[in-house]
Amino acid sequence: xxxxxxxxxxxxxxxxxxxAVMADRIYMLENGEVIEVGTHEALMAxxxxxxxxxxxxxxxxxxxxxxx
Length: 68
Description:
Helix content: 25-40%
Strand content: 15-25%
Order of helices and strands: EEHH
Number of strands: 2
Structural class: alpha+beta
Low-confidence stretches: 64-68
Shape: globular
Strand order of the largest sheet: 1-2
Mean pLDDT: 85
Number of helices: 2
Oligomer: single chain
Distance between the termini: 28 Å
């Protein structure tokens, strides 16, 4: 998808935060409001809601890979 939209703007909505890592800008929404904006690296450094949710989701992937 990233290749197909290389020279255009694209908005994608995902609950899987691992998909957001490659985005130029991430908007974290809560209750219909933007609560955090930035790159993956900036939001992880901020250590807010995005970082917390990203880490929780990443634990699920690591756990499933280890048990496989």
